[in-house]
Structure prediction request, 121 residues.
Amino acid sequence: MPNIGTPELLIILLVVVLIFGSAKLPQLARSLGKSARILKAETKGLREDDDDAPADRPAKTMPSSQGDDARDRAARLREEAARLEREAAAAEGGQRSRGALGSGEPIQGVPVSDPGQARKA
Prediction:
């Protein structure tokens, strides 16, 4: 296998500059560095996982206050999702008129369900 010397490196660098342009080189170097750091962290994590037995390692637990907050938020999100599903089912079944509120009230006092009455008033 031939050795890569200074002239070959300069030619490679010139080709890279021609392909990517001088403005893109710093961005390319940053992304390459980030990728190398991520790869290094992942391989380190895999090595640590292989070295430690699961029984030897204590389980990571969340503080109880954070766990309670997360549970409360999840419950609120479930309730909101159920409410939205009920509204969607009602809209599909009742075919709500365009411009009417969910309660069937007219918008700004104009009955949307009967446009003829709105013109008379």
In short: Helices lie at 6-20, 25-51, 64-94, 115-120. DSSP finds four helices and no strands in the chain.
